[in-house]
Amino acid sequence: MTGTRFHSPKESLRPIMFVGTGSGVGKSVITTGFCRIFKQDGYHPAPFKAQNMSLNSYSTPEGLEMGRAQAVQAEACGIPCHTDMNPVLLKPTTDRNAQLVLHGKPAGNFSAMEYFGSGSREALFSEVKKAYHRLATRYSPIVMEGAGSISELNLKHRDITNMRMALEAGAATYLIADIDRGGVFGSLYGTMALLTPEERGLIKGIIINKFRGDPQLFEEGRVMLEDLCQTPVAGILPFFRDIFIEEEDSIALKYKQNGPIHGKVNVAVVLLNRLSNFTDFDRLGQDPRVNLFFTGTADAILQADIVILPGSKNTLEDLIALQDNGTAEAIRKAFKNQKTVIGICGGYQMMGEEVEDPLHVETSRDRVDGLGLLPVRTAMQAEKTTRQCSFRFRDREQLCKGYEIHMGTTRATREERPLNYFPEGGADGYFLHDKCWGTYLHGILDNQTVIDELISPYTELPGETFDYHQYKGDQYDRLAALIRQHIDMEEIYKTLQS
To answer: Which domains does the chain have, with CATH numbers?
Structure first.
């Protein structure tokens, strides 16, 4: 495959879209890689995903909420994230209900039947189209991502994310299949067979993802696929785990449940049913002194040096589950054993004396007892706080960065002891002592000074200077180089210039 780069473009490019034969085939990561390629080649790309379903969200510079995956893709493009890149975000609160975030603001809670069974959703699709066209006036190419499978016939007439959006944008569309999970011939042929002629006309190529071994061994399979689907195979991407790209879905956590390791500072992140913003711990996991793992078992929690209660989209229900399954008692025992216990966002709320929900924002209960580790109480509110912020951690002079996304107010029940201080005034969190504190700030553990303070009781090794922003930039470049090596970019550009 060619590694050619295209410099100083003079023409606008047609939008490109990456869709899948199913969920988890690698659409988000591949979209991120193409965002970086177009930036490298002198274009001014932007990502777009009409509807995202995820508990991993992010705050825009304007203080609005969007899917984390599109924020990552915007970073790969070298531009600020904006809600036009992800106008509809669904955040599951239970197995059957989700909060709808429209243009960055909460727009109500809906059951799956209410949301997906409500006709063709023309009003919502109209908002999605407006967001896309606003974005398309400012950037080129628009690098679009689909959701799940494009051949769900029972949902297609209500689709606002996949081929309906591809047709609206006139996007050159590439179909991705995960060969590692098996059944690649059936999934690709079946998907293509279920498309309408108009939809098939948009499919410009197939991308085989997560191939293990020598791709030359699949050459016969490539020919067969092209004959079956009457569509060229644009490339075969290898399976990799040595390039770090923030994950969109918590399915990736199955690779991060390894347990304690001797000689490392063992950090256990408590697995919650509605765990949100698990990327809060990616930077900490990169520290060579640390072994970070996710767990829901009492034994693993008690073996850890540091226990972290993460964010949750349903604090009260997850708190009830912790108390019912014995995990709460293990966390209290770790605290009594002088292990470090900290909480972020929903985890901070859980660490208090109680969580009230008088408006029944999350549950039918009025209140739930907290873990009792911090002298604070939380009241859930209808309004969501969403913003990016700078702060000073404890009494440190260095300015750190983070962001807030929460629906609740937490107040101290005795002397206020803030953890963080904002330059413009005000404070955040509660600092009980060096080994117990809570905060509303996502991204707090992206800051080296916070990490060093957190793990200092457990290691004498000094922290290394680590530019996390530069590290992520290097990973985007590595991903782009991998795609250039295995996908014919000259053919890709031909479809975008036609």
So the answer is: 16-244+474-497 (3.40.50.300), 250-465 (3.40.50.880)
